[in-house]
Write a structure and sequence with these properties.
mainly alpha; single chain
Length: 76
């Protein structure tokens, strides 16, 4: 019997849910502080769903959200 092929480290369903959480939470906030807090929440939630380090997820989410909102202020 052939072995099953793994397409990635994370199941696709969990990754899709994490991505949805991040998109739903990130991208908001009027000030850089608000943007970093909301981005950190989205990153931590996404990391928790993917079962990876939530501290790193929060840091990446905060930095990404602030960077995006500073580059595209009309969309935040």
């Amino acid at each position: 019997m052939p072995k099953r092929i793994k397409l990635g480290v994370f199941p696709l369903g969990r990754a899709a849910v994490a991505f949805g959480f991040v998109l739903a939470i990130a991208g908001c906030g009027e000030t850089p502080l608000e943007q970093s807090v909301l981005g950190a929440g989205g990153g931590a939630l996404g990391a928790a769903v993917l079962d990876v380090d939530t501290t790193t997820g929060a840091l990446v989410g905060a930095l990404a959200n602030v960077a995006y909102c500073q580059r595209h202020p009309d969309e935040c």
